[in-house]
Amino acid sequence: MTTFTTGTDTLTRDALAVLQPGFAGTTAPDWVRRRLGEGLASVALFGRNVATAEQVTALTAQLRAERDDLLVAIDEESGDVTRLEVRTGSSFPGSHALGAVDDTGLTRRVARELGRRLAGCGVNLNWAPSADVNANPANPVIGVRSFGGDTALVARHTAAYVEGLQSTGVAACTKHFPGHGDTGVDSHHAIPHIDLDTTTLHERELQPFRAAIAAGTRAVMSAHIRVPVLDPDRPATLSSRILTDLLRGELGYQGLIVTDGMEMRAISGTYGLERGVVLAIAAGADAICVGGGLCDEGTVQSLQDALVDAVRSGELPEERLADAAARVRALADWTAGVRRSPAAAAEPEPEIGLTAARRAVTVTRAAGPAPVTGPVYVATFNPAPNIAVGDETPWGAGAELERLLPGSSTGSFTGPDAGDRALRAAAGRRVVAVVRDEHRHPWMRTALDSLLAADPGTVVVEMGVPQSAPRGALHIATHGAARVCGVAAAEAVLAG
């Protein structure tokens, strides 16, 4: 039987405090403002909540008028996963581009500038960086969100990112523990299994998280993945062996543990949303990420009631819920303290994102074909985006090439006949083919085969993980599809 609560007792306030819900709209709904008074301590912003930086600043001010010590979270990895610039593309390259440059000072500066902008908008918890080692090139959900496939590289850049971001008073949330890089399944759709031995787990997957903890990461996000060597029965988000025994006990982590989105089918489709939330808190999670899909008051009420009922039935110890709520409030206190510190006032570096994107570009030239000097046809081969990236954010090099080479035009293609359709659309013009993870999409490889057979002077721009061998008159790897990566790619096309 559902227990309806009044929002005034300690148990109810703790149940609300561990939730990090989303909501609809670009202003604060009445129900969110009311819940803040009842004990809600966090909210999450998604692309649907963002119009401009000024609007986000007004929104967070509106929320903090109800509760000053509020955690405002966002999934702003930059690169391919952006929320602040969801409709334009990010001003910062993503992790894979930073890993390709391999300058930890640059990574720290990029993260600091991102943190400065987030703090300026009133955001104080960022669900980033990804500390996943991209061990499986066919990974459908991590890819360019990872700093790379080398453990030591991922570890040092994860630490640098945490340090840079947190220097501005924005808490980093290092993810996806214990490592989502060696999966062939997207946990938005099902539970991935990672079958590895204990040695590989400790020497590869866990090292970046150790580095993040040593760098002082204030939050860690769990992954909805099953790692049988650690727990054969439950995914990490619901596993006390992984969250409590390993992360808290063996690794000595004392900060906030946040779940990945609980509506993801790996949890909601297997355990149910309410049951999953109770199991996560019982396993050692402190904060529940929910709201990427479900963003209504009814969801908050049902999760609040599920936690209260679990405590009253004895399934969830009240002390565990109280401890989780206390960790949420402690993180809010930390962000407030750093925000008031003079050291958090970072000097603006508005061009650091473009600087980093330019440095990340790798160019391979073939002998013979002439450089690009006139209008081109930009054929963008568009794979289906994963849910983390979404389909709202524009990507590619077409807009910038149209600006730099007047008379150029762009088309988007997908599917088994994409190459033939692109050739017809190009109508004899020189083609710049823009791809994203060619190695993962056979139809994309076939499309490039067609273009290169018709014209060896075709230029190829790879904006995903550059696993396929370079080909074309000019092959440009950007290591990500952020807006600034598109600018850097267009410049490289002209530079030849």
Treating each run of at least 4 consecutive H or I residues as one helix, how many helices?
18
Evaluate the radius of gyration: 23 Å
Give the helix/strand class.
Answer: alpha/beta
How many individual β-strands? Answer: 14
Output mean pLDDT.
Answer: 93
How far is the N terminus from the C terminus? 69 Å
With strands numbered from the N-terminus, the spatial order across the biggest sheet is 2-3-4-5-6-7
Shape designation:
globular
**Helical content, roughly?**
40-55%
Major sheet summary line: 6 strands, parallel
Provide an overview of this structure.
This protein has helices at residues 10-17, 30-38, 53-64, 95-101, 104-120, 151-166, 198-205, 207-214, 240-250, 265-268, 273-283, 297-313, 318-339, 352-360, 398-404, 418-426, 442-454, 483-495, and strands spanning 19-21, 42-45, 71-74, 125-126, 171-177, 219-222, 256-258, 288-290, 362-365, 377-381, 409-413, 431-435, 459-462, 474-477. The protein has 496 residues and is an alpha/beta fold. Strands 2-3-4-5-6-7 form a six-stranded parallel sheet. Strands 9-14-13-12-10-11 form a six-stranded mixed sheet, with helices on both faces. A two-stranded parallel sheet has the order 1-8. The longest helix has 22 residues, at 318-339.
